[in-house]
Amino acid sequence: MSQEFEPTILAFVCNWCTYTAADLAGTSRMVQQPNLRLVRMMCTGMVDPKYIVKSLLSGADGVLVSGCHPGDCHYINGNYKARRRVKLLNEILPQFGIEKERVKLTWVGASEGNEFAATVNNFINEIRELGPMEARSMAVV
Amino acid sequence: MARKIGVYVCHCGSNIAGKVDCANVAEFAGNIKDVVVSRDYQFMCSDPGQEMIIRDIRQYGLDRVVVASCSPRLHEKTFQKACARAGLNPYLMQHCCIREHCSWTTADPDEATAKARHIVEAAVERVGEHGELFSREVEVLPDVMVVGAGIAGIQAALDIAKSGHTVHLVEQSPSIGGHMAQFDKTFPTLDCAACISTPKMVAVSQEPNINLLTWSEVEEVTGFVGNYTVTVLRKPRYVNETVCTGCGACLEKCPTKAISEFNEGLGKRKAIYRNSPQAVPNTPVIDGTICKKITKDKCGICATICPTGAIDYEMKERREVFHVGSIVLATGYDAMDPTPLREYGFGKYDNVYTALQFERLNNAVGPTEGRIVLKNGEKPESVAIIHCVGSRDKNYHEYCSRTCCMYALKYDHLIKDKVGHDTKVYNFYIDMRCFGKGYEEFYKRVQEEGVTFIRGRPSEIVQEDGRLVVVGEDTLLGMNVRLPVDMVILCTAMEPRKDVTEVARVFGVAQGQDGFFLEEHPKLGPVSTATDGVFLAGTCQGPKDIPDAVSHASGGAAQAIALAAKGTVSISPTTSWINPDVCVGCQVCVGLCAYSAIEFDERRNIAVINEAMCKGCGSCAGYCPSGAAQIKHFKETQIFNEIDGLLGMIPDWRPPMEEPDAEPVRIPVQTDQPEKRA
Predict the structure, then answer these.
(1) Per-residue model confidence as pLDDT tens digits over B385-407
(2) Which of A51, A118, B6, B575 is deepest in the core (most CB within 10 A)?
(3) A19: which residues sit within 8 A by CB, 6+ positions away?
(4) Which ipTM value was assigned to this complex?
(5) What CATH number should be reported for the domain whose range is B335-495?
(6) Measured between CB atoms, does B107 come within 8 Å of chain A?
């Protein structure tokens, strides 16, 4: 079964860096696996941990949060706030049987289309390796 | 009340339709709840495409619109305006991307179509929760700041000043002119650089609308488009600009010497100095780190000799604050230091020069008074010019510096012209890139002057019997070359300024992978940045020659003038909003806000957003423990619906019990948000 498993992944990306990088990856025709779907946010700082948890509970096998590089935040320091939140979430999720690897934070700058495509493909591979999320099927939630 | 949603799927010619079955996506969307009309069309952004939307809004009474096409960063505004023309609030439209993030990046057509369906479903689910929003108009301050007074900054400042607006022109060095002031001649016309740039420099100093701030640096920028507050650090010049007549008597008597930066290390300057006799302003500056009076309280000869008493050793640095509507960045480039390329022996062998050093050798007011000579004072009999030093090189800069081929040709000509036609000149090049007006013709002319072109990047430069030997391969002949020469010129790369990262941070602009400032769009937005009201001019955006830098600067100036001329700018209404009925007054958001846009209302015991300051970053909304803080257009209900839509289709392998409810989960959080009309 794990051979057939194709993960569904959501990515919360900031408008200024990673979303722009995703556009660039598209314009440069950098092929990515189709498992990832983007949610455009203005800043990673507005990604409420609720969104991540909700995604995992509603069927996502992995959640990527990606924004501007440290120091490059369009809103001064929103990405640092995201970093704190994701770090905390990574501590808490395992207590509910959700592997912390399912939530990942990366920095992809606006001009890094190739970096975006690589990040996406790597994350999809990681989650595919990890398999379906057991916690959800155990109906813990 | 049921929504009436219209869905429009764009083919974008074959860009989307080549991978995504657009008709299928439109048909699928037509079956989603509340969708009353769903169409696919070849070019939604075309006039007939937009007309289609407008017609449907009127005919079907649509109250929500979803457009699935290219990235919202490209055409969101287009479709928002189309909706507005039909009388629908632009924020009741959701634009989703099935091109950059779907058709262009997905290999398999079926998978692309499936992904497009998810994306459209998410947009439909999301748009149902959208509310009407209204943009605010804010005043644009009439003044403009231009940072950097090289040729690009000068051009931008003059253009803006001509429009009648005041320009604050900030330059970190003691005089203006930038790199162009260091050059001797310019390609391909061989115009004397000083002859064409000095009138512009003088025009700057005489223009009443330009407030020239040399020997100054921008320390801090706050505010937003139309209303920036800029703090400028005025470094102490130790010479009073208003009193000094520029007679230059002090320069002759000063006993302390240092290496001249302006002459690229080839000559000496005094502790009190100016870059050249044509310097604008021509007020000298005292180097406070070496001046004997300032460091040891000795000497003081310049003060005694100065006829106007302009010398002031007690001068302190000070800060001035300016309020401007927009900012033009023209901070320029650095020429790469070739020392790390040890194979070329720069710094080790006497007669290996950088291109800028060679410009100074050529310059009539340079260290050799314009004579092209070796370190021992003799004329070179042969010169090798090495192109692409640090450019087009994976180890240093992958990009092409765009100017080196042409200035190398200029050097070819100047050497033949100044040293003598019997001087042998060899160019080691990778490709000759002579793309500008009159450039190819100049290349032809130089070839006819008897210059040798050898295709290949030299592997090293060695010294044998006191002569330099360039070792390389002529890749056209397929032969190794060992070429003894007297002088070597390294055409070093143009690279971002050393402090570029810090400057980018101060002005809130991003850097591209090459380190230069990132423009809004590589093709259609080369002068604007992601930060509204901050524009780029010249080589701070990427390597450019003089005509390109000047036209780029005029472009940046035009953008700044446009803002100032209109006098108002519309600000996105997607700010934060704190629901007063939900807020418990914990004040966490107040501390989180990077813009101090949240105030605490003591009387009502709630936090309140100052919409004029809020930029809608969502730091407060992301944290707010009670869910009171919400970003308009990025509300929790909207994001939750989007998530549901994106996850709406469950892959086949999952057991049926796992399927989520067909109805998206709607979280009952603050649904009656009143939107204020600005």
Answers:
(1) 999 999 999 999 999 999 999 99
(2) B6
(3) A13, A38, A40, B71, B73
(4) 0.95
(5) 3.50.50.60
(6) yes
